[in-house]
């Protein structure tokens, strides 16, 4: 074991101990909205992207504005790679081998990644790595809830950067902090009319959080699972490419699905490179579900069922029929706060309260997004989690 591995091992142990000792579960927050105070880091800027434009140039404006932050982020990823494989061989591999993969990515993603590489000056292999990164390292909380009038709301915290560089001075995750300035809201248009909106990281062409106004809302959470796991990604690199990138599927669904049912079908049946959770909300009563995916298909679809008293579905990173990992239980506190809120009082505002309660809000939380399908509204906020706050 080299010294950086040893450091990570000790660090992980220290974090686990801290978490056990302090618990850091707090009383359900109230009155947090409109966002303000120490857990609100700032607003997320909006950009428009025209789907009529050549994919190579679609992202030009976003990249031009966020180039500095993007290059800084890539630098951190490379430093992390070099600290794991000090010879620099990993980065060399990325620069030499990954570019060959570009043409195997589906259109328009291949062209978009190429365009972002050209506009930012970041080598194409590193841009592909950056895009793979988000597919596999996010731990999150998502919820779809129905109010007493049948309106559907969808909220999510995007938590990212686990075990990737800890800043001892101000107790923050290096990667999480670097991601905040890369967060952008995008209004994707065709014929100058909104098709869908998303909260994205500049440089990433997939979608983790999005709304198709009047039709559906969609978020994706990582599913850590040995059955499949990262095998699909390795297979893709060595040439077996029959599965789809998860974030490319969500983007395709947001761009081209015509209804909640159509979205549900595509998200359930398309073969994937790795397992995932898709959290989907529709525009009518009862339309909200968590799709638990294996690489092949849906293992389970868990839906809102008012008759059973289930007026919301909530997903973190564990199968809903199993207990969460005891060191990472964000589900119980989030559900406790949802239950305490009650269906009569649920709204984007009270969902923001739930998503602001530690440890649902934690050191990894990059942004909180709130979506309301009937108005087409998507709003997102950058987050901070000052101490005492759980590392995840
Ligand atoms: C912690 O320090 C780093 C490096 O100076 C900075 O980028 C980051 O924004 C800080 N984070 C917080 C939460 O203060
Ligand atoms: C697109 O729509 C906006 C308002 O919705 C309008 O201000 C703008 O001129 C339109 N652009 C084009 C190219 O039609
Ligand atoms: C959506 O459909 C259009 C028209 O068929 C196609 O050009 C576009 O590439 C599709 N979008 C995605 C992300 O696959
Ligand atoms: C809900 O979605 C369906 C398509 O599934 C659409 O026909 C209908 O107009 C939508 N309803 C509202 C209120 O937007
Ligand atoms: C929340 O309420 C649901 C439905 O009544 C129940 O199944 C669940 O155990 C409750 N969870 C918590 C953490 O209170």
From TrEMBL:
Residues 42-104 form the Acid ceramidase N-terminal domain. GO terms for molecular function: N-acylsphingosine amidohydrolase activity. The active site is at 140 (nucleophile). Its EC number is 3.5.1.23. It catalyses: an N-acylsphing-4-enine + H2O = sphing-4-enine + a fatty acid. It is an enzyme of class 3 (hydrolase). Keywords: Disulfide bond, Glycoprotein, Hydrolase, Lipid metabolism, Lysosome, Secreted, Signal, Sphingolipid metabolism. Pfam families: CBAH (PF02275), NAAA-beta (PF15508). Residues 1-23 form the signal peptide. Pathway: Sphingolipid metabolism; Lipid metabolism; sphingolipid metabolism. Its main location: other. GO terms for biological process: sphingolipid metabolic process. PANTHER family: ACID AMIDASE, ACID CERAMIDASE. Belongs to the acid ceramidase family. This is Acid ceramidase. It comes from Coilia grayii (Gray's grenadier anchovy).
